[in-house]
Queue: 2 jobs
Job 1
Amino acid sequence: MSGAADAEDTATAQEVLRQAQAVISAQNNVSKILDAKLTSLLQASLNLAVASLGAATLAFAAISWLPAWGGLGLATMGACFALAAILSVWGLRGSNLGAPAIVPAALFERGVHRLPARLAYLAIAFDLQKVVTYNELASQRAARRMQRALHTALGAPALGASVAATAAATTPQQAVLAWAVMVGAIVAFLATARLFGAR
Protein backbone atom coordinates (compact mmCIF):
# COMPACT_ATOMS: atom_id res chain seq x y z
CA MET A 1 0.00 0.00 0.00
CA SER A 2 2.87 2.32 0.88
CA GLY A 3 4.46 1.73 -2.53
CA ALA A 4 1.21 2.65 -4.31
CA ALA A 5 0.86 5.77 -2.18
CA ASP A 6 4.45 6.78 -2.96
CA ALA A 7 3.83 6.25 -6.67
CA GLU A 8 0.69 8.35 -6.47
CA ASP A 9 2.54 11.13 -4.60
CA THR A 10 5.33 11.02 -7.18
CA ALA A 11 2.82 11.23 -10.04
CA THR A 12 1.18 14.24 -8.35
CA ALA A 13 4.55 15.94 -7.93
CA GLN A 14 5.36 15.25 -11.59
CA GLU A 15 2.07 16.85 -12.62
CA VAL A 16 2.82 19.94 -10.51
CA LEU A 17 6.19 20.20 -12.24
CA ARG A 18 4.62 19.68 -15.67
CA GLN A 19 2.08 22.43 -15.01
CA ALA A 20 4.84 24.85 -13.97
CA GLN A 21 6.77 24.09 -17.16
CA ALA A 22 3.62 24.54 -19.26
CA VAL A 23 2.92 27.95 -17.69
CA ILE A 24 6.46 29.14 -18.37
CA SER A 25 6.30 27.92 -21.98
CA ALA A 26 3.02 29.83 -22.41
CA GLN A 27 4.60 32.95 -20.91
CA ASN A 28 7.48 32.71 -23.37
CA ASN A 29 4.98 32.43 -26.25
CA VAL A 30 3.11 35.50 -24.99
CA SER A 31 6.41 37.37 -24.84
CA LYS A 32 7.10 36.49 -28.48
CA ILE A 33 3.66 37.77 -29.47
CA LEU A 34 4.24 41.04 -27.61
CA ASP A 35 7.63 41.41 -29.31
CA ALA A 36 6.03 40.84 -32.73
CA LYS A 37 3.36 43.48 -32.00
CA LEU A 38 5.95 45.95 -30.77
CA THR A 39 8.07 45.33 -33.86
CA SER A 40 5.08 46.01 -36.13
CA LEU A 41 4.26 49.15 -34.18
CA LEU A 42 7.89 50.27 -34.41
CA GLN A 43 7.94 49.81 -38.19
CA ALA A 44 4.64 51.64 -38.68
CA SER A 45 5.64 54.49 -36.36
CA LEU A 46 8.99 54.95 -38.08
CA ASN A 47 7.38 55.01 -41.52
CA LEU A 48 4.75 57.53 -40.41
CA ALA A 49 7.33 59.67 -38.62
CA VAL A 50 9.55 59.86 -41.71
CA ALA A 51 6.56 60.56 -43.97
CA SER A 52 5.16 63.28 -41.67
CA LEU A 53 8.49 65.00 -41.08
CA GLY A 54 9.36 64.74 -44.78
CA ALA A 55 6.04 66.30 -45.75
CA ALA A 56 6.53 69.04 -43.15
CA THR A 57 9.68 70.22 -44.97
CA LEU A 58 7.51 71.17 -47.96
CA ALA A 59 6.35 74.19 -45.98
CA PHE A 60 9.91 75.54 -46.14
CA ALA A 61 10.32 75.22 -49.90
CA ALA A 62 10.96 78.38 -51.95
CA ILE A 63 7.63 77.95 -53.73
CA SER A 64 5.46 76.05 -51.33
CA TRP A 65 1.86 74.95 -51.72
CA LEU A 66 1.84 73.85 -48.07
CA PRO A 67 1.16 76.67 -45.61
CA ALA A 68 3.35 77.06 -42.55
CA TRP A 69 0.55 75.98 -40.21
CA GLY A 70 0.22 72.72 -42.17
CA GLY A 71 3.95 72.10 -41.90
CA LEU A 72 3.81 72.73 -38.16
CA GLY A 73 0.97 70.25 -37.76
CA LEU A 74 2.82 67.62 -39.79
CA ALA A 75 6.01 68.21 -37.81
CA THR A 76 4.10 67.76 -34.54
CA MET A 77 2.52 64.57 -35.84
CA GLY A 78 5.92 63.30 -36.99
CA ALA A 79 7.41 64.00 -33.56
CA CYS A 80 4.59 62.00 -31.92
CA PHE A 81 5.16 59.08 -34.25
CA ALA A 82 8.90 59.28 -33.51
CA LEU A 83 8.09 59.15 -29.78
CA ALA A 84 5.87 56.10 -30.39
CA ALA A 85 8.80 54.46 -32.19
CA ILE A 86 11.10 55.21 -29.25
CA LEU A 87 8.57 53.75 -26.82
CA SER A 88 8.33 50.64 -29.02
CA VAL A 89 12.10 50.24 -28.97
CA TRP A 90 12.04 50.67 -25.19
CA GLY A 91 9.50 47.85 -25.00
CA LEU A 92 11.68 45.66 -27.23
CA ARG A 93 14.74 45.98 -25.03
CA GLY A 94 16.35 42.69 -24.28
CA SER A 95 14.50 40.87 -21.55
CA ASN A 96 15.79 37.68 -20.00
CA LEU A 97 12.74 35.52 -19.49
CA GLY A 98 13.14 32.43 -17.39
CA ALA A 99 13.20 29.05 -19.08
CA PRO A 100 10.91 26.14 -18.14
CA ALA A 101 13.83 24.29 -16.58
CA ILE A 102 16.51 24.71 -13.93
CA VAL A 103 20.22 24.61 -14.69
CA PRO A 104 21.51 21.17 -13.55
CA ALA A 105 24.44 22.74 -11.70
CA ALA A 106 22.01 24.68 -9.51
CA LEU A 107 20.14 21.49 -8.68
CA PHE A 108 23.35 19.66 -7.79
CA GLU A 109 24.49 22.53 -5.57
CA ARG A 110 21.23 22.33 -3.64
CA GLY A 111 21.48 18.54 -3.35
CA VAL A 112 18.19 17.93 -5.17
CA HIS A 113 19.63 14.76 -6.74
CA ARG A 114 19.81 13.19 -3.26
CA LEU A 115 16.11 13.73 -2.52
CA PRO A 116 13.38 11.16 -3.15
CA ALA A 117 11.80 11.63 -6.60
CA ARG A 118 8.61 13.17 -5.23
CA LEU A 119 10.48 15.80 -3.22
CA ALA A 120 12.91 16.48 -6.07
CA TYR A 121 10.00 17.23 -8.45
CA LEU A 122 8.40 19.53 -5.90
CA ALA A 123 11.70 21.32 -5.22
CA ILE A 124 12.13 21.98 -8.93
CA ALA A 125 8.51 23.14 -9.21
CA PHE A 126 9.10 25.52 -6.29
CA ASP A 127 12.08 27.05 -8.13
CA LEU A 128 10.02 27.31 -11.31
CA GLN A 129 7.35 29.24 -9.40
CA LYS A 130 9.92 32.02 -8.96
CA VAL A 131 10.46 31.96 -12.74
CA VAL A 132 6.70 32.18 -13.32
CA THR A 133 6.48 35.27 -11.09
CA TYR A 134 9.48 36.92 -12.78
CA ASN A 135 8.12 36.22 -16.27
CA GLU A 136 4.68 37.57 -15.33
CA LEU A 137 6.17 40.87 -14.18
CA ALA A 138 8.28 41.11 -17.36
CA SER A 139 5.20 40.50 -19.55
CA GLN A 140 3.19 43.11 -17.68
CA ARG A 141 5.97 45.67 -18.18
CA ALA A 142 6.17 44.91 -21.91
CA ALA A 143 2.38 45.13 -22.27
CA ARG A 144 2.33 48.54 -20.54
CA ARG A 145 5.08 49.81 -22.82
CA MET A 146 3.22 48.59 -25.87
CA GLN A 147 0.03 50.32 -24.68
CA ARG A 148 1.91 53.60 -24.19
CA ALA A 149 3.46 53.38 -27.65
CA LEU A 150 0.11 52.54 -29.24
CA HIS A 151 -1.69 55.41 -27.49
CA THR A 152 1.06 57.81 -28.56
CA ALA A 153 0.78 56.69 -32.18
CA LEU A 154 -3.01 56.90 -32.10
CA GLY A 155 -2.89 60.39 -30.61
CA ALA A 156 -0.40 61.73 -33.17
CA PRO A 157 -2.94 62.72 -35.86
CA ALA A 158 -5.23 64.44 -33.34
CA LEU A 159 -2.36 66.40 -31.80
CA GLY A 160 -0.94 67.33 -35.21
CA ALA A 161 -4.33 68.51 -36.44
CA SER A 162 -4.91 70.51 -33.26
CA VAL A 163 -1.52 72.22 -33.53
CA ALA A 164 -2.14 72.99 -37.21
CA ALA A 165 -5.61 74.33 -36.47
CA THR A 166 -4.25 76.46 -33.63
CA ALA A 167 -1.51 77.88 -35.85
CA ALA A 168 -4.05 78.60 -38.58
CA ALA A 169 -6.57 80.17 -36.21
CA THR A 170 -7.25 83.84 -36.70
CA THR A 171 -9.08 84.28 -33.40
CA PRO A 172 -8.55 82.91 -29.89
CA GLN A 173 -11.97 81.26 -30.10
CA GLN A 174 -10.86 79.19 -33.10
CA ALA A 175 -7.73 78.06 -31.25
CA VAL A 176 -9.76 77.07 -28.19
CA LEU A 177 -12.20 75.18 -30.42
CA ALA A 178 -9.32 73.25 -32.03
CA TRP A 179 -8.04 72.10 -28.65
CA ALA A 180 -11.55 71.35 -27.41
CA VAL A 181 -12.02 69.04 -30.39
CA MET A 182 -8.75 67.26 -29.57
CA VAL A 183 -9.67 66.84 -25.89
CA GLY A 184 -13.08 65.52 -26.96
CA ALA A 185 -11.40 63.01 -29.25
CA ILE A 186 -9.14 61.84 -26.40
CA VAL A 187 -12.09 61.45 -24.03
CA ALA A 188 -13.99 59.47 -26.67
CA PHE A 189 -10.96 57.24 -27.25
CA LEU A 190 -10.50 56.54 -23.54
CA ALA A 191 -14.20 55.80 -23.12
CA THR A 192 -14.08 53.37 -26.05
CA ALA A 193 -10.95 51.72 -24.65
CA ARG A 194 -12.68 51.25 -21.29
CA LEU A 195 -15.80 49.90 -23.02
CA PHE A 196 -13.79 47.23 -24.81
CA GLY A 197 -11.68 46.41 -21.77
CA ALA A 198 -8.44 47.84 -23.12
CA ARG A 199 -7.74 49.70 -19.88
Note: The CA atoms of residues 59 and 65 lie 7 Å apart.
Job 2
Amino acid sequence: MTYLVVLRYDEAGTCPVILREDDHLFSSDGVRWRLVAHTDDPELAARIVEQLRTHRREAATTAEPPGVPVSS
Protein backbone atom coordinates (compact mmCIF):
# COMPACT_ATOMS: atom_id res chain seq x y z
CA MET A 1 0.00 0.00 0.00
CA THR A 2 1.18 3.50 -0.78
CA TYR A 3 0.99 6.26 1.80
CA LEU A 4 0.93 9.93 0.89
CA VAL A 5 2.09 12.69 3.20
CA VAL A 6 0.29 15.89 2.30
CA LEU A 7 -0.06 19.33 3.80
CA ARG A 8 -3.60 20.59 4.23
CA TYR A 9 -3.89 24.38 4.02
CA ASP A 10 -7.07 26.07 5.23
CA GLU A 11 -8.18 29.08 7.23
CA ALA A 12 -7.10 27.35 10.47
CA GLY A 13 -3.53 26.93 9.24
CA THR A 14 -1.37 24.11 7.90
CA CYS A 15 -1.61 20.51 9.01
CA PRO A 16 0.36 17.46 7.81
CA VAL A 17 -1.83 14.46 6.99
CA ILE A 18 -1.16 10.84 6.01
CA LEU A 19 -3.43 9.39 3.34
CA ARG A 20 -3.62 5.86 2.04
CA GLU A 21 -3.83 5.24 -1.68
CA ASP A 22 -7.56 4.49 -1.42
CA ASP A 23 -8.43 7.64 0.58
CA HIS A 24 -10.23 10.51 -1.10
CA LEU A 25 -9.30 14.17 -0.76
CA PHE A 26 -12.30 16.27 0.07
CA SER A 27 -11.94 19.94 -0.62
CA SER A 28 -14.22 22.63 0.59
CA ASP A 29 -13.90 26.34 0.04
CA GLY A 30 -10.43 27.52 0.87
CA VAL A 31 -8.85 24.08 1.39
CA ARG A 32 -5.69 23.31 -0.56
CA TRP A 33 -3.42 20.27 -0.53
CA ARG A 34 0.30 19.92 -1.24
CA LEU A 35 2.05 16.59 -1.74
CA VAL A 36 5.16 16.25 0.43
CA ALA A 37 6.12 12.57 0.03
CA HIS A 38 4.89 9.12 -0.90
CA THR A 39 6.13 5.82 0.49
CA ASP A 40 5.19 2.19 0.99
CA ASP A 41 6.41 2.36 4.61
CA PRO A 42 3.79 3.61 7.09
CA GLU A 43 6.46 4.19 9.76
CA LEU A 44 8.40 6.44 7.41
CA ALA A 45 5.22 8.40 6.64
CA ALA A 46 4.62 8.86 10.38
CA ARG A 47 8.22 10.08 10.89
CA ILE A 48 7.84 12.61 8.07
CA VAL A 49 4.62 13.93 9.61
CA GLU A 50 6.32 14.25 13.00
CA GLN A 51 9.24 16.14 11.42
CA LEU A 52 6.81 18.52 9.74
CA ARG A 53 4.99 19.12 13.04
CA THR A 54 8.28 19.69 14.89
CA HIS A 55 9.47 22.11 12.22
CA ARG A 56 6.19 24.01 12.39
CA ARG A 57 6.41 24.29 16.20
CA GLU A 58 10.03 25.47 16.04
CA ALA A 59 9.23 28.02 13.36
CA ALA A 60 6.33 29.36 15.42
CA THR A 61 8.49 29.84 18.52
CA THR A 62 11.41 31.49 16.72
CA ALA A 63 9.44 33.80 14.46
CA GLU A 64 9.64 37.47 15.29
CA PRO A 65 6.43 39.49 15.41
CA PRO A 66 5.88 41.56 12.25
CA GLY A 67 6.98 45.15 12.41
CA VAL A 68 9.46 44.66 15.24
CA PRO A 69 12.88 46.01 14.29
CA VAL A 70 15.87 43.75 14.77
CA SER A 71 18.68 45.38 16.70
CA SER A 72 22.30 44.40 16.19
Note: Residues 3-60 form one domain.
